[in-house]
Amino acid sequence: MGNGELYFTKMHGLGNDFVVLDGISQSVNLSAAQIRQIADRHRGVGCDQLLLVEAYEGDDAEFRYRIFNADGSEVEQCGNGARCFARFVYDQGLTQNTTIPVMTASGRIVLQIQPDGQVKVNMGVPELTPAQIPFVSEQRQTLYTLDVKGAAVSLAAVSMGNPHAVLQVVALESAPVATLGALLEVHPAFPKRVNVGFMQVVGRDAIRLRVFERGCGETLACGTGACAAVVAGRLQGLLDDQVTVSLPGGDLQIQWQGEGQPVWMIGPAATVFRGTLIV
Ligand SMILES: N[C@@H](CCC[C@H](N)C(=O)O)C(=O)O
């Protein structure tokens, strides 16, 4: 640290907050330690994830965007981040298009800026094969049972490009999000660690959700977590194909027609401030 400056934008999607860096107009090469410092809420700007926007050379996408958790780890996908990325490249004049294909570490996704300013995202087809999540199991099941410190925990396992465990709870307020979330994040059954969602089913078209995110702890909202929860709930026969997911930071609309189909997410993205980082 201490030998350069980087322009950044602070954004959030339902309180899941991001430092967004334009890696097209400036050169960005950050170590994991520098990302941890930027994400630090006392010694840095503070964020759940850092998003890096880059040019993409191929024909099938306009941009590439990379996602780093607050602990410095690079990850595959981020739903709230995708919406903020779309607003960022559009509002900064990096594109004039309102339909924006972008390459992520888990493949191509397509973002659509809506007339009301919200962003609709095709989040791709969920992956349910254990080895692809990755999750250690001989066969695919709707629900798995894991031993967590001697207790049997029932959960669904879904990848939205990144790995998710989804647990159903009766009362969200008293769910052991911090304790059980932290234990499951590093459970050996998830070799790349996991995001852990606690889902309360309110009706066939509504759930409440809290997510303990891999690499940063509980956040106010998790877009891929909302998608994974709807997939898990649909596969258990609990939900219809259009679901309002209420997170601590606000609501997302999630649609999933079923096996082999992509998950659609609609939600807001907000810009909070811009500034200069000393790195
Ligand atoms: N907040 C994100 C997910 C960010 C990445 C996640 N913590 C992981 O490690 O996979 C979202 O909105 O999806």
Automatic annotation (TrEMBL):
Quote the EC number: 5.1.1.7
Entry-linked PROSITE patterns: DAP_EPIMERASE
Catalyses which reaction?
Answer: (2S,6S)-2,6-diaminopimelate = meso-2,6-diaminopimelate
List, from the UniProt record, the residues annotated as the active site of this protein.
78, 222
Site for Could be important to modulate the pK values of the two catalytic cysteine residues, residues = 164, 213
Recorded GO molecular functions are: diaminopimelate epimerase activity
Q: Which domain of life is it from?
A: Bacteria
Q: Specify whether Coiled coil is a keyword of the entry.
A: no
Please name the Pfam families in this protein's record.
Answer: DAP_epimerase (PF01678)
Q: Could you say which residues bind substrate here?
A: 16, 49, 69, 79-80, 162, 195, 213-214, 223-224
- Keywords assigned by UniProt? Amino-acid biosynthesis, Cytoplasm, Isomerase, Lysine biosynthesis
Per the UniProt record, the site (Important for dimerization) maps to 273
EC supergroup of this enzyme = isomerase
Query: Which pathway is it part of?
Result: Amino-acid biosynthesis; L-lysine biosynthesis via DAP pathway; DL-2,6-diaminopimelate from LL-2,6-diaminopimelate: step 1/1
Q: Which HAMAP family match?
A: DAP_epimerase
Q: Which family is this protein grouped under? A: Belongs to the diaminopimelate epimerase family.
Per UniProt, subunit arrangement is: Homodimer.
Q: What does this protein do, in the record's words? A: Catalyzes the stereoinversion of LL-2,6-diaminopimelate (L,L-DAP) to meso-diaminopimelate (meso-DAP), a precursor of L-lysine and an essential component of the bacterial peptidoglycan.
Name of protein:
Diaminopimelate epimerase
